[in-house]
Write a structure and sequence with these properties.
The protein has helices at 2-21, 30-36, 39-45, and strands at 65-69, 75-78, 82-83, 91-92, 101-106, 113-118, 124-129, 139-142, 147-151. It is an alpha+beta fold. It has a domain at 63-153: Metal Binding Protein, Guanine Nucleotide Exchange Factor, Chain A (Beta Complex), CATH 2.170.150.20. A hairpin with a 5-residue loop joins strand 6 (113-118) and strand 7. It is globular. The structure holds fe (iii) ion. Residues 69, 71-72, 74, 118, 120-121, 123 line the site of fe (iii) ion.
Length: 153
């Protein structure tokens, strides 16, 4: 019985570890993320924060280019799918590739929303809503703090 309990504990611990390290290609320690990111970038991407509307770098950016994950550099959104949502957050009707973003149920703050994270490093990016423009009808409502803009040369 003792051995059975011990084995059960080990299996449980192993399960927890694999769930935490998930499948992300880029993983860093909390200290490493804090070192790499600004305080706001860290709060948004690693602690699921939200920047105040109309304060970010990109809500009013109309230059052509690519928006990458500020944490790992994965290409997430193109300026060609960016639109003025009137929310004060950079908004897109499509991701560059569906594989580059993950969707997760978010029931915080008494709401049901769909959280969007980077598929390469797990960074919190924002949420996706179904009230966007055509052709997709989607509105990826992102935080500027989660993104790094690379202008088209
Ligand atoms: Fe990332």
């Amino acid at each position: 019985m003792k051995h059975f309990l011990l084995a059960a504990c080990i299996l449980f611990a192993a399960g927890c570890t694999s769930a935490q390290t998930k499948k992300y290609a880029v993983t860093k320690t909390d200290a490493e993320w804090r070192k790499q990111l600004t305080a706001e970038q860290y709060a948004v991407t690693r602690q699921k924060g939200t920047e105040t509307a109309y304060t970010g770098k990109y809500w009013d950016n109309h230059k052509p280019g690519i928006y990458k994950c500020v944490c790992c550099g994965q290409e997430l959104f193109s300026s060609t799918t960016k639109f003025d949502s009137g929310t004060g957050w950079p908004s897109f009707w499509q991701a560059i590739n569906k594989k580059y973003v993950e969707e997760n149920d978010d029931n915080s703050y008494g709401m049901h929303r769909t959280e969007v994270t980077c598929s390469r490093c797990g960074a919190h990016l924002g949420h996706v809503f179904d009230d966007g423009p055509q052709p997709t009808g989607l509105r990826y409502c992102m935080n500027s703090a989660s993104l790094s803009f690379v202008p088209k040369n």
